[in-house]
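Write out this protein's structure.
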Amino acid sequence: MDQLSAIALLDEPARRRLYDWVVDQGRPVGREEAAAAVGVTRALAAFHLDRLADAGLLASDYRRLNDRRGPGAGRPARVYWRPETEFSVSLPERRYGLAAHVLADALERQGGGTAVDAARQAGRELGQQLGEAARRASPRRKSRERLRTALEDGGYEPTPADDGQVIRLRNCPFHSLVDEHRPLVCGMNLAVAEGLVDGLGEDNLIPVLDSQPGYCCVAFKPR
């Protein structure tokens, strides 16, 4: 019920815009910056951000937003960012995460490469399907724009990095499995990414394993 109540907070339009904007930044942000970005007053932004933080949808802390120190530097400001906490509500209750752990255990216990190769092949086929669907839906858009759409549809939350030359992924849809099954999950993510590139016909970017703090293990880099 706590998770259901938390998710229900996002039904308010201004609060949802603030939440989405904070998530998109991928870093801690202050109230004034968030208010200016979504076009609301600082007081209203503070009210909504605090509600989201109290519910656990955002994490928060106090820190200085400039390099000034000592007398006259002012008090630390409250900042917000998305936490690692996952929210999931299903009625009636389902345990898909538990099923994923069981299946991952079964694959790894098979030994050898056959089972893991099968998982990666399935991931590659999923990526191809996402890529082909994005290409059919927007045939006139640039390939990088179609790639972004396909990644968003897959739940990866793409974001530009390194002056826009690289695409990194703020979210791993299989995050709950990573700690216990990292090689399997990262290999499957790479296979999905390779399938996406094939399905889109993207020639300029190549997916590689490049783990960075706060990002999925896969990045798209210039070929």
